Structures are given as C-alpha cells and as structure tokens.
Amino acid sequence: MYSQDEINSAVAAGALTQEAADALRAHAEAMRARPVTDEEHFRLVNSFNDIFVAIGIVILLVAAGAIGQAISEAILPAPSWPSGNVADEEYARITADYYRSDGLELALAGVFVAAASWPLAEFFTGKRRMALPSILLLVAFVGAVFTASFGTGQFLSHSNEDAAAAVFVLGSGLIALAAAWLHWRRFKVPITVAAGAAALAVSFLGLIGLVLELTVGVQGDDWMLPVIFVAGVAIFIAAMRWDMSDPERATRRADVAFWLHLLAAPMIAHPVFTATGVIENNAEVGVLGALAVVAIYIVFGLVALAIDRRALLVSALIYVLAALAFLFDQFGAVELTFALTALVIGSALLTLSAYWSPIRRTIVGGLPENLQAKLPAIA
C-alpha cells in the first residue's frame, strides 16, 4: 500500500504524472465504502523493520545521553552535602555548585542526544523515509535542544529561582522552536510543526510566568492551566488552518494538521475538565458537576465530528470515565461501577465509529454552506 507522501514524492520525482496520481487516488477512494477523510489516515509503521529500527534508535540515544552525563560528572561532580548545620554562606555556595553541576549534566546530555539525532535523521528520514524512526528522531532532536538550552542557562546562572526558571523556559522554548524550523526545512516530517508549536507554547508559559513573577509576585502554578488552555486553542486554530487548506486530505498538510490536533486536544481538555474537579476532588464533584463533564464531552464530540478529527474525544476519555463512575456510584451501582462505565463508553465509541459518516453528514449539513466547503468531504 502506498502512502500519500510516497505518491506525492513520485510526482515530484517525475516517476508519476499529476494526472496519473489524481486518477490513482480517485480509483482508490472509489474502492472504499467511505472516503479517505473519514478514515483519518496517518502513517506510523510500514513493516516490523520500522519497530526494529526504532528500538535501536532509542537505545543509541539513551546511550548518548548517558555518555554526556558521565562526562559532566567527570568535569564537574555534584557537591557533597555536609552533615549537620551549615552557615548561610556555605549553604548558598553548595546550592549554587549543585545547580551548576546539574545544569552542565543537562546541557551535555542534550548536546550528545541532539548531535546523534541529526545524522540518524539524515539516513532514516532523508533517505529511507521511515515514519516511526523519523518521529522519534524529531522528538529527540527538539527535546534535546530544549534540554541543552535549559541546562546551559542553569549552568551559567547556577540558580533555580522562579524568575530564573521562567527565563530559562522562555529562552529554551524559542531555541527549540528554531531547531524545529531547521528540521522542517531539511526533512519536512509532518510532526515537526506540532513540535515547534509545543516549543512555542512552552515559551509562552515561560513568558507569562516571568511577567507574573516580576509584576505581581504570583506564587504557585494556579495560573498555568488557563494559559495552557489559551495555547491549546491557538494550536487548534492553527490545526484548522492546515486542515482547511487541504479539505480532501490528499497532501502532507493533512498529516501536519493531525499532529497539531493531537497536541491541542489535551491542552484544551485538561484545563476544561480540571475546572470541574472531576479528577482532583471526585468526592466533591456532585451530580451536576459529573453531568456537566458528560455534557462537555458531548460538545467535544460534536466538534470532532464536524472537523472529522478524533483527538478531542480520545484526550477527554479519562475525564468522562471518572464522571460516569461517580454517577454510577451515586445511584447505587457501586459493585458494577467499573463494568457499567466501561460498557457505556465502549459501546458509545464503537457505535460512533460505525456510524461516523451518517452522523457527521447530519451535523455538517446543518452548518453554513461556506463553512461546509472548508471542512473535509462527507461520505
């Protein structure tokens, strides 16, 4: 089976004309009961060799990080904490040495992992076009650049105060964003845009944290969930822009949108459902709160059907499971709570999957025509 990327690559290389590629897609679509869009395809593995290579990559990158940590410990070992009470000056010195040692360890481990990731990507992504290894190498490269940047900041400042940490997060996120951009320019792996969006979101968190720390001296992390929600909505809008530019989902743009939706979904779902208290304070949620969780999940389902993306439904599952379990407990089905919850959710998801196209046709059919034209095709 050939992927959309491979067909596009064949067209670009001149091995297949655009007309022939369009005819092939049309024929393949006609052979299926539902259009490609309703299936939400994305390529992860082509064969077991992809998994085999992925395991080797993980082992090699872990080894690279361990080597970096070992070199760091040889250059600047962590200080020993003396027993008993110490003077404030001595405590400050030891603490600074500890953060400096820890920062160098993060920096060298990140540098080694990033340095190993890029040449591996040149072969397994640039030449072999292997999906799962490409995803792992991209995540490892961007994550390692972020870690190395954060560690470098901690090493130079030998501080871990809130304001300093916010600066490190802000700067490291921007550097990781630049790393994702370079990776995209070279390899065009669809998940790269989502990695860059995640780096930008982290920078946004660091900026807000720095502003709050310097202006009003906010303590704790209560502000984080609203900021994460705002960032998630922004990423969701970006995903929709990619989706609407390719409503037929025949190009790489649809794959980019898929990963953006996968990133945005938990960033939207977690703050919304956490506000209901369904996870942290389950005993205090109340029947109305649990019903509100179910209602929100239904709204998420309607949005997922309209845009033909399932990420929101998957990301919110744990919250609606907790809400249903609470409701069954309240109505006396304590012994069957798990079974009834699993039965209801499993049946609902399977029914939705089986009748996705007709349900979606009804929902999209009620939207304005100009919006329908921008959404994926209806079976």
Question: What can you see in these coordinates?
Answer:
The protein is mainly α and 379 residues long. The protein has 16 helices and no strands. The protein has helices at residues 4-13, 18-30, 36-39, 48-75, 88-124, 131-157, 162-187, 191-215, 224-244, 252-274, 286-307, 311-315, 317-330, 337-354, 356-365, 369-372. α4 packs antiparallel against α5 (88-124) and α13 (317-330) crosses α14 (337-354). The protein starts with a helix and ends in a 7-residue tail after the last helix. The model has no long low-confidence stretch (mean pLDDT 85).
In short:
By secondary structure, the protein is mostly helical. The protein is built from 16 helices and no strands.
Task: Compute the separation of the termini in Å.
Answer: 22 Å
Q: What percent of residues are in strands?
A: under 5%
Oligomeric nature of the chains: single chain
| Net shape | globular
- Got a strand count? 0
Rg, Cα atoms, Å: 25 Å
The overall pLDDT average reads 85
What key attributes describe this structure?
379 residues, mainly alpha, 76% helix, 0% strand, globular
Lay out the secondary structure.
Layout: H1 4-13, H2 18-30, H3 36-39, H4 48-75, H5 88-124, H6 131-157, H7 162-187, H8 191-215, H9 224-244, H10 252-274, H11 286-307, H12 311-315, H13 317-330, H14 337-354, H15 356-365, H16 369-372
Helix pairs in contact: 4-5, 4-6, 5-6, 6-7, 6-8, 7-8, 8-9, 8-10, 9-10, 11-13, 13-14
